[in-house]
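Q&A log
Question type: sequence-to-structure
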Amino acid sequence: MKFHTLIAASVFSLGALGVSASEAGGYAGAGILNSGVDDSGLNDRSTGADVFGGYRFNPNFSLEGFYADLGKYEERIGAGRISLDAQTFGVRAVGAVPLTDAFSLYARVGFQRWDAKVEGSAGTQLLIGEDSGTDLTLGLGGEFAFSERVALRGGWDRYKFDDVDADAASLGLKISF
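Response status: OK
Response body:
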């Protein structure tokens, strides 16, 4: 069984574990990202931001939409350079396991639409290209609730851009309503 299929099945199975109408509701939040790309010709870290919003159907399952600006990655190669500027938005399913009343772990899987601008230079020649696509995104993390409405969320996500993977560590604030 493929790893992606196994994660998707796990997330959707977590959603079926519990139903509590009092735990249902919408949420929104924002965070900062520290992301990195390690690809042939490009190995860099960047700071970006994300916003998200969703609906929690029960303590174990949510659907959310997101937008992430992963920042700009740059690498010098001899006398030239290459840079990648990437943004993405999409939808993901979130499966959570509450460990205490205030702390839970989550896994998420979804689809994203990404746009990237690539620039390269060699001597005096400048090359510019743009690309976009739809790919899978995966993530793991934890959430600590300060109150019924405010939580701190931290985690790791992998954003795929065709043959390039960007891994992002995130820290954000989530408001439930």
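Response note: Residues 3-22 have pLDDT under 50 and may be disordered.
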